[in-house]
Amino acid sequence: MKQHAKKAKIKKTNDERILDQHHIDYRETHFDWITKGKDALTEAEANGVPAKSILKTIVLKGSDNVRDYLVVCLPLEYEINLKKIANELGKKQVHLADNKRLINITGYVHGANTPIGISVRKGFPIYFDERIKKFDKISVSAGKVGRSVCLRQGDLIDLVKGKYLKVE
Description:
The protein is an alpha/beta fold. The chain has helices at 14-21, 40-46, 82-89, 102-106, 115-122, 153-160, and strands at residues 26-30, 55-61, 69-75, 95-96, 126-129, 137-144, 147-152, 163-165. The strands form two sheets. The protein has a five-stranded mixed beta sheet with strand order 4-2-3-5-8. The longest helix has 8 residues, at 14-21. The mean pLDDT is 86.
């Protein structure tokens, strides 16, 4: 008698559940770039995801106020310009949040931060690099390292009450 191998059911992340609750269509993508010895961009492009549509989520601290955190999402291939962001937001300066404290600040480890969960759970303001406007679909972390969701840009902006920012 021939036995069929059972497909391992992938457990949804909390962020995917949030998207489901809001009836937002998305496609889950798993990038196993670390164990393959590649970089995230190479792995993404091999899976048919345009590099410029993949966003990294960067947590910033705006001042000495304990609650003054904000999130900026920009394409993976670009570097962040802290002076430009501070200027655009009318702040004297902004700094990268302490990587060692990210889990305490956002609830996510470095590499898994996502505007979806941070917005819903923490209420931090979320800003998006305006260069993503040309993409109908974008990819962000699903709340777990190596796992992303691809969804309509407008759906994400609406869900997190995001604003566009000129960061170049």
